[in-house]
Amino acid sequence: MNRRTVFVIATLFFACCFIVSGCRRDGLDRVPVEGNITLDRKSVRDGYITFKPQTGTSCPDVSGQIKDGKYRISRNDGPVVGSYTVGIVASEPTGRTVKAPMTGIESPEMKQVIPAEYTGIMGRSSLTATIKKGKNVVNYDLSSAGNGSKK
After folding, report:
1. Which residue of 32, 44, 95, 146 has the fewest CB atoms within a 10 Å radius of its CB?
2. How far apart are CA 44 and CA 70, in angstroms?
3. Residues 59, 37: Cα–Cα separation, whole Å
């Protein structure tokens, strides 16, 4: 699979997670989570963050949109108390256009700007979070070279 295909699949996956995470009536004791996401000390302009529960945490994946380096997931849509693997994806236009193979429609070519070790694509991410009762602020300062950290 080439990088573009992986990126398209990841973007669709996170978009679906975000849409599905709409109004919740599941009886789970959810909590809000918010924070800032930077890459090389610059705010991530647009993207998605996903909290995937680790073993022992019973909750579906929870996603939120990153806008201008910030994300906020309300209590209604938030995670439950527990441990999570976190995936972050963001893309930006390359300045070129590409044609869709089947339709021939041109659209801006996008590139993934977050290193693969943080994306959660194919189940891999070095990012984690522990969510506690009450308000949670979870920030990530990522590096293009890898080895990002939680602030």
Report:
1. 95
2. 8
3. 23
Beta-bridge partners for 46: 67
Total number of residues shown for the chain: 151
Distance between CA atoms of 3 and 111, rounded to whole angstroms? 9
Taking the C-alpha atoms of residue 146 and residue 123, their distance in angstroms, rounded to an integer, is 17
Whole-angstrom distance, CA of residue 95 vs CA of residue 52: 33
Q: Which residue has the tokens 């994946």?
A: 61
Segment (H or E) for 20: helix 3-20
Compute CA 28 distance to the chain's CA centroid, rounded to the nearest angstrom: 21
CB of 4 within 8 A of CB of 112? no
Within 5-148, strands assigned E span 33-39, 42-43, 46-53, 62-67, 70-73, 82-99, 106-112, 127-131, 136-137, 140-142
CA dist 4 and 89 (Å) reads: 13
Q: Which residue has the tokens 């996956």?
A: 13
Instruction: Flag whether the pTM goes above 0.70.
Output: yes
- 2-56 tens-digit pLDDT: 566 656 566 666 665 555 554 446 789 999 999 999 999 999 999 999 999 998 8
